[in-house]
Each structure stands twice: as C-alpha cells, then as structure tokens.
Amino acid sequence: MSELPPKEANLFREILKCYEMKLYKLGFKGAEQILKKFPEHGETLAMKGLFYNHMDKKEEAYEFVKKGLRYNLRSHICWHVFGLLHRSDKNYEEASKCYINALKYDKENIQILRDLSLLQMQMRSLEGYIDTRHQLLELRPQNRQYWVAVAIGYQLTGKPELGIKVLTAYEETLKDIPSTPDYEHSEMLLYHNSLLEEAGDIQAALDHLSTIEKHVCDRKSLKEKRAKYLLALGRLGEAEAAYRALLSINPDNMAYFEGLRTSVGLGGEKLSAEEQVKVLELLKGLQKEYPRSNAAKRLPLRYATGEAFVKIADEYICSMLRKGVPSLFVNIKTLYTDKEKEQAVEKLALGYLAALDKSKGFDHSGPHIEPPTALLWTLYFLAQHFDFKRNTDQALGYINRAIEHTPTLVELYMTKGRILKHAGDYIAAMEALNEARELDLQDRFINTKCTKYMLRADKTVEAEKTVVLFTRADIANPLNDLVEMQAQWFSIAAGESELRQKHIGRALKRFHQVHKYFVDYTEDQFDFHTYCLRKMTLRAYVSLVRLEDQLRSHPFYVRAAHKAIECYINLFDHPEGADTEEMEGMTEAEKKKYRNKQRKAELKAQQEAEDLKKKSIANGDASKKAGGAGKVDEDPEGTKYSKVEDPLAEALKFLKPLQDLASERIETHLYGFNIYIRQKKLLLALRSLLKANKIEPNNATLHEQLVRFALEVQKSSPKPGVKAVIDQHWSTLYQGQDLVAFTAAFLEKNKDFGSVNHVISAAQASYLISSSDNKNSKSESLSKGEKLLFSIQDDQYQKTRSVENAILVQTLLKKWRSSRVQEWNEKAKTWYPRATAFK
What is the 3-state secondary structure (H, E, C) of 322-341? Predict the structure, then answer.
C-alpha cells in the first residue's frame, strides 16, 4: 500500500516532523498508530525502522526498513531511510547507492540531493559531487551555498579557474550588497581571491583585493595577501611598505621579517658579506622601532658570522639569562648546525659562569652585579648545551649544581631527567621526573612527562597509576578516560613499552587505539560539510578537506603503524609466542627453567588482571549509581588482536595508508618489504626495494633487505615470468656484484662517514650470506658477523656511536647466541656507564 487516507496521511507528516525535531519516541508512537490500521504501509514501516535505529536497536531497524522496501520498492522515502540507516553505520558506499535509487523516483528532492552530495564529499567522489551540486544549483539558484559548493568542487578537482567563473556568475546576480562589511559575504570574497591565487593569476588576485577591500572584515588577511602578491609580482618597494605595515601590527611574526628581507633585495639562504651587513643593519633598525620584539633580537643571530655573531650573541644571551628565560637554549640550538657558532656560544656561556663565580657579573671588567638567578639560568643553559653534545658528565655536573642553588625549580629536574634519558639510564631519568612531578602536583604537563618517562623505563604499572591522577574519578577504569580524550601520546608510549616487554596483545591494543582515533578524525569531518558552507568558513573548510586527505601521514599515525607492523611480523615469525625467540639456542634444562619463570609471571599478571577487573566492575557499579560511566575493559590483554589467523594481512591494513600518504618516507617501503618477503610475494617485495632505493640508495637497512631478497630469490626459484622481471632490475640494485662483493663495496663506500648503522647492516648481511652457504659452519658465520660488529670499537666510529645503536648490537649478538655478549656489554659500559641496558 502506498497511499494513506487523509487522517493517517496528516499523521505521517507529523511523524516526519518528529524525526526532524529529534522527537523519536513521539514519532515512534505515531508510526505504531498508523501500522495498527495499515500494517503493510511501506513508508511508515521504514520510518519505524529509522526510529528504532535512534533507539539503538539496529537489528529491528534494518528488519523494518527492509520490510518497508518490500512493500513499496518505488518509494523515495523508503530508499532515503535505508540510506540514512547505512550512513549512521558509516557505510557510505551503500548509503550513496540508496540515495541514487531514491532519486530515480523523485529526481528533484532537495534533501536527498543534499545528503548524496555530503556522502560524495566524504568519500571524495568529487566528479559526482560536482554533478549533484549542479543539480541543486539549478533547482535553487538563489541559494548562495549551492554556488559556493560547486566552486569548491572544482577547486578540489584541480580546476580553480572554473570555480572562479562560478563565483563571478553568482556575484553578478547580487543586488543588495551590504554597505558595511558582512562576515559571510566577506569570507566568500576572500575565498574567491584565494581561487585567483591558486589559478596562478597573481595580478588578477591583487586587483581583486582592491575591488573587495571595503567589503572585507578580515583586515589582517587582506594585508598579508596584498604584501604576498606584491612580492610575487616583483613590486619590491610596495611590498616593503606592506610588510612594514604588517610588522607594526605583529612585530614577532617571523614570516613578516622574511617578507621584508626579501622585498629589500636580501632574500636567499646564503648571503654575501655585504648582504649580511645590510641585513644586520635592517634588523638593527627594526630593533629600535620595536624594542619589545624578541624576533627582531633573535634573527641577527641567524645571519651574523664571526666577530659580529659573537657580539650579538653576547648581548642576546646575557639579556635572556638576566631575565631568566627558560626557553633560551631552545632558541639558540637551531644555530648549532654551524659548528663555529656552537663553539662561540659555548665559549661565551663558560665565560659567563667563570665571571659570575668570581665577580657575580657577566664580565670581569664590569662593576655591574647580576641578580642571583643569573647564575642559576647560566648553569641551566650549560647543562642543556652539553646534553645536546651528549657530554653527559659535564651536563650532569652543571644541572646538579643548579639544583643545589635552587632545589625547588621544576625545570631543573626535568632537564636532569632528559640528560639521564640520553645517557641511557631510564630508571634514574624516571626518578628525576618524578621528583619534578612531586614539586608541583597540580601541573598536568609534568605529570604527563613523568608518565612518558615511566613508560620508557617499562614501569607500566607506575605509569598507569601516575597518569590517572588527572583523569575522571567517576568511571570504572580511569585509563578509558584517556582513550575517550584520544590521548595519542599515551597509547603510543604504552604500546611501545608493551612491545619491548614482549606483551604483543597489549601493544597491539594500544596501536589499534591510535588507528581508531584517526578513523574518528576522518568521520568527524562529516558534519563540517554542511556547517562550513552554512557559516561560509570556506578557506578553513578547504584546508580541512586537504588535511583530511593527508591525515594518515601524520607522525603519530606513522609511528603507531610502524610498531603495529612490527608486532604482526613478530606474531608471524613466532606463532607459538614471543618467548620462542628468547628460547632459541637454549638447552632443554634452560628452556624448562625459562618456561617456569614465564609461567609464574603470567599467573601473577592474570591475578592482577582479575583483581583489576573485579575492582573495575565494583567501581563501575558504584559509578553507575552515581550517574557516571561504568564501562569495563573486557580484554585487558588484547587477546583479540594477538590471536589472529593471518598476522601479515593485518599488518597490511596498517601499511596501505602509509603507501598512499607517506610514500615519500623510506620506512614505508622497508616495512612493506618485510611483509611481502614473508608472504613470498617477490614482485611486491622488489617494488618496495626499488622505491626505497630511489628515495635513499645508501640507507643502512635497505642494504640488509637487498641481501635478504637476493637470498630468497636463490632459495625459492621463482617462476620464469617473475624471474624475468627480477632480472630486469637486478643490475640496478646489485651493480652486477655477488653478495659478498656487494656487501664489501657497501662497507667501503661508507667507511669514510664512520657510520655505525651501516656497519651493523653489513654485519647482519655478512651473517645472512655466510649462514646461507652450507659449506660454512655456524661458528664461521657468527665469526664474520661478530668481527664487523666489534669493529665499531674503532675511533673512527666514535662520532656516530650512540646508546641506541650500541643496544642494537647487543640485541643482535643475543639473537645470534653469541658468546661475546658480555664482552660487548663491558665495552659499551665504558662508553655509556649510566646506560641500564649494559648493567
């Protein structure tokens, strides 16, 4: 049945209004009333299903909507409702199909066309989006949103010139333009201007600014654009005046300083001696004009050299130390790319300390006595300076002296923790941060930093107890509050800690949390497709859409994805559990002892988990009574993530976004190789190697993977077609050398750089090559790898040695079951006496 009697038809219209006004229970009652008389009315059945959906009854919702479609397959309402149901489940593909079916029976339905266009934008089906928006524009040509939406569609498809034509046509229809600036009209005009800029017609964009100036609210943006366009057109005199006007508004904006420098003909990274003098004169004049501008004081340090730099740095650093600016070193350290400047800063700072100790002033010859805090901040600066140089003993000496001077300053303990972290003593670093935290228990930032240091030290329980001090107290599991707040830093740091402890399930659980955060960010943009058009925040909207398109190239996602891939590769390599890796090479007695120890640890962990679950349930019940959230973690160990049938297929889910959005990073292709080579997909593995080789042909890890690939090809005997493709690229990758010569050439090539990472890669490659040769015994293979690893002791590798790569060598020796692990530990201890890894 499709038609209702007048009384019920009026009631049905009331039901539709109830849905629009979100009165779902009232609408549900109305639908029930109609269905008592007309149980086969398809549209009412569909609406009842829609109300069920908003009452969190998904099964009933789909059942009634499908029933409604069966009774009235040609109803646009039934199809529209079915689309809304799919849309609520984020199934945008199916939802758009339903909307398209709905439009077959009501081609000019504005609401359905709008809903379809939103889905098309969400899915980035931009050609379809433009078509749909054109239909809406034809139906409602007086609606500004529809004109603008078409222009945005053209811009996002790389056709800004068509967007300009659309906006120009709309502006020609306007009659009553407000005499005073109107925000929405202003934003549309500025958006039009941005399209002109994007189309590359800078002169037209500049002329357009003059035309729209009296209608624009955002005066600062107008001035910035004018200055930018004048500079791009080479009208340097006018650009200089424009940038000087901008500096009078904000004399701390670095971009304005750079624009001014370029407009006076002193642009470029490398300046001649004459140009340096002119730049310094320019900045000196700006310092007088804006005496409170920190940027004007800081910029001369970038351009000055030699004695001029020493004089300016002396003045700048003294001023900052006198004021007690904690961020001084952060401002200065960017200069350390120039070794001469680094040495000059060190000499100045040491001179200040000596003078303060002797005469309480920065200069021996001057009578001026500095405030007592000057000594404190000088020690603080020197501690950070020597920590940057990884001179741990000196850095600790200065920071300890600073703590003796002022034992209540939080920043000192945080810096001490950072120094100890760089030295590899994660436990002592954690303790230093905890001291800082206890000095100010109300500071959430310090609490967060302390938690991160605890996780780095793999003190997971302590970290969780610390971080929940700033979560809501009325929920069953306070850690869930961090998930709700999408605290990525905690999920990543906790996941990495669990991975180091071989708790693969728990680690994956954390990395999947990060994955879900990014899924949520993608979903959250949906509402902005209507909001931004309604409010005319068009430039911000286009930026948002473009940001969303690159979202998974964000460092947080990349980091979590890399670690998740490592977890899944670990699960594939050790299907019986991570402990099988630890037991390789052990005798039966040692294995038994190890298993007993692990079993006791597991029982203890299970007991703690049970206690926590009971406590969570109890807290949840209490929280529910108090009106709070009572959600209990049903899978604290992350079993559903670790017990998967195909770990490599799961790893690929994390890799695919990286291949699309972070393809310029070599790590993406290195991780891709690790997955494909295990899947025996040689051509995909080859593709990853070729892409990695194009990005960074001298990468240390790449060399090891090239060796692994060659050995796999030799072992697997690929099909003729696959072999032909591999042969085609073989000479590009291996330069016609056998693997031994290839590794020797790689080592020789990097010898002058003294790179420890390249030596480690060559050692692994040599070990793999020797192990693959049946003529060699295990001890012979091990000897070749060990010889290379221990060559890192040579003085030529001193500059590139670090705690991290020393730990990597230790890990390799353990993996190879080398008898020289203790020998390495003793040697590493002499370089990094504080590092806990070698104790």
Answer: HHCCCCHHHHHHHHHHCHHH
